[in-house]
Amino acid sequence: MAIVWATTTAALVCALGLQVPTATPPSPPDPAQSPTTPPTLRPQTLRDPTIAPRKAPPPRQSQSPDASQRSTPTTRDVSGLRATRLFAPPNGPVEVQIRGADSQTPYTLLLIDSAGEVLGMAKDLRSGRIDLLTALPGVQGMHRAAWLQLAANDEAVGTPLVVQPLREPPPVRTVRSKRPDGTTEYTKIVGWGSEALDPDDTTIDEVKREWIAGDPAVLSGYRIYPDMDVLIRTDHGEMRVALAPHEAPATVWNFRTLVREGFYDRGGFHRVVPADREGRPFVIQGGDPTLTGNGGPGHVLALEPSRLPHDYGVLSMARADEPHSAGSQFFIALGREATARLDGQYCAFGFVVSGSRTIDSIAATPIADAATGRPTEIPVILSMQLMPAPARMPGTDRSSERVKTTTQAGDTPPTVR
User: Fold this and answer.
1) What sign does the CA torsion over 85, 86, 89, 93 have?
2) Bond prior to 93 in cis (omega within 30° of 0)
3) Is the model's pLDDT at 207 over the cut of 70?
4) Dihedral through CA 404, CA 234, CA 287, CA 298, nearest 10?
5) Which residue, among 224, 158, 118, 222, has the nearest Cα to 389 in the 3D structure?
């Protein structure tokens, strides 16, 4: 076994001869500025409960998989590389198993971050069990999730594994603030741990002096699992979502679990806000099995400090005014201008990589109640399904695959038609 460290991605690519693909806000919504937008991204109680959701056609077998199809693929579904256990202790062993038809084939193991930078590499490996803490010492210094990719003969082998260090997020810092209308109050997130969300915001200098330091973040172990995308089938078409465990690991795991267990099947997008007061595209929202805007999975999530910007096609968790109140409801941003203020206030955890026409079609749904964003006919989520994600190789950043709106330059956006 030989361990080789690359100083740059370019050097590693040359060494391996790999083919690298060419990479092709902060405040909650303000009702004073956008009368169609409730104060938070949790929809309000229905004003017209008689509005019924659209009746979806009977699902075909391919549209509504059974429980076995919905379940997270087991080790037999993942070719080449698998984790021997979901959780591993901080001091190891952190084992994965290389499985190949030929026990003499030399393999290369790559640890790659979200931007495509190589954190570590081990060459000349053979089939069998590998302790990552021995083969890839860089694992021990990780603070964010990264991807473990197997390669043989200069080609990627199978689905990558996500390696997530188990660390608690820093304490969230909040203040009570007023919206531009001067009367409505909300809880504004201003920092994490000892760091201000906006370093240039001098208005919180006094508040920072009162912050009580939280417990130091410790490494409690590792979670290792196959990287999966989510296929969302709706009566408006399909969307494929890439998840971002490096930004919101607990949120991603929660979403994957709900998808796997069929929680979202036969639900819908109960809230559609195609544009704010200035005509800028805003959000579409789903994930409530009751379709009332008040339902959830029966538990709440701690807010995570995701750095993923709210832009067109980005998925984020809806919540009430209390920061740690998200559960299952999510929204998809329709444009950067109106949703930039959501950065840091809501937890973005994924992005759509195909299905922009589906997003735009849902956003163009006629609205029955503009105050709540209630559609006349609720777009139906027929099913959600986990699908193996593509290989991760040096120099690739999947965020570059995020969809763009189907609107052409100079056209009226479909979200405001």
Assistant:
1) positive
2) yes
3) yes
4) -140
5) 158
Domains along the sequence of the chain with CATH: 2-19+73-165 (2.60.40), 172-208 (no CATH), 228-416 (2.40.100.10)
Residue-level pLDDT at 407: 58
pLDDT tens per residue, range 109-145: 999 999 999 999 999 999 999 999 999 988 998 999 9
* DSSP code of residue 159: E
List, as one string, the DSSP characters of 113-149: -TTS-EEEEEEEE-SEEEEHHHH-GGGGG-SS-EEEE
Query: What's CA 268's distance to the chain center, in Å?
Result: 19
Give the pLDDT of residue 104.
80
pLDDT score, position 328: 98
For residues 92 and 342, give the distance between their C-alpha atoms in angstroms, rounded to a whole number: 39
Beta bridge partners of 228: 388
CA–CA distance, 304 with 410 (Å, rounded to integer): 37
How far apart are alpha carbons 74 and 217 in whole angstroms? Answer: 31
> What confidence tens digit (pLDDT) does each residue in 352-401 have?
999 999 999 999 999 999 989 999 999 999 999 999 999 999 999 999 99
The DSSP call for residue 91 is T
Residue 149, both tokens: 């990719």
CA 224 – CA 141 distance, rounded (Å):
16
Rounded CA-CA distance 66/292 in Å is: 26
